[in-house]
Write a structure and sequence with these properties.
Layout lengths: L3 E9 L3 E3 L18 H4 L2 H6 L9 H8 L4 E6 L1 H4 L24 E5 L7 E2 L5 E5 L3 H11 L4 E6 L1 H9 L5 E7 L7 E2 L11 E8 L4 E7 L4
Parallel strand pairs: 1-7, 1-8, 3-4, 3-7, 4-6
Antiparallel strand pairs: 2-9, 5-6, 8-11, 10-11
Length: 217
């Protein structure tokens, strides 16, 4: 059965996935890129960005599993962009250049209609204006029987979690405090009773938590 999953989603000790004042220069907000230091130090991330000599071990293993059985992704409008400081918002094509990292169909939640963007490497961004359920239905269909990854940001993950639609989350808790920014675990109500943490794996840099939806049958 296909699942909606969150993979390698980093949060600070105080629950923020991005700091304040996000911009084109600082997409994670002011000093927020520290949330990803653990990933940048891994061998796999180093290879992706042409930097040899990264670390193997627990963090690298979790990064390697992030793409397992993923056939499509969903993201929120703010994760695709553009940020507030981009002048030509109509020409914006995402943060990732002409060959984004996804290499599969990506469905972007949006309030504005826009033609799909076909990028290099097999990534196509499709903009969905009729809600989270529609985006999920389209993503499942495009995934060809594989799972769908919910890429973010925090507000989008929160929407799907409040609706009880997420099957599994892999969160990476980074031992820093951001104080302000974009928080995921907020105003979830009774939906928290649907989920439980089934794995806690600390590394030297971060803690990996796997949270799954309970089987209530």
């Amino acid at each position: 059965m296909q699942k909606l999953v969150v993979r390698s989603f980093a949060i600070s000790l105080d629950g923020f996935s991005a700091a304040r004042d996000q911009s084109q220069k600082e997409p994670f907000g002011k000093d927020g890129l520290r949330l990803m230091d653990w990933a940048f130090n891994t061998k796999l991330f180093g290879e992706r960005f042409g930097r040899p000599g990264g670390q193997e071990g627990i963090d690298n293993d979790f990064i390697a599993r992030s793409d397992d059985n993923i056939g499509a992704s969903i993201m929120g409008r703010r994760m695709f962009g553009p940020p507030h400081d981009v002048a030509d918002k109509e020409a914006w094509r995402g943060w990732w250049g002409e060959n984004p990292v996804y290499h599969h169909p990506v469905f972007v939640l949006s309030h504005q209609r826009r033609a799909s963007l076909e990028m290099e490497g097999g990534t196509t961004f499709t903009f969905v204006t009729d809600g989270i359920e529609s985006a999920l239905s389209q993503a499942f269909a495009a995934a060809g029987g594989r799972d769908v990854r919910l890429a973010g940001g925090a507000a989008t993950v929160r929407q799907y979690m409040k609706a009880g639609l997420i099957d599994e989350l892999h969160l990476v808790q980074v031992p820093i405090l951001l104080g302000q920014g974009e928080r995921m675990f907020e105003d979830l109500g009774g939906v928290v009773d649907l989920y439980e943490c089934v794995e806690f794996t600390p590394s030297k840099a971060v803690s990996h938590l796997r949270i799954v939806k309970k089987d209530l049958r």
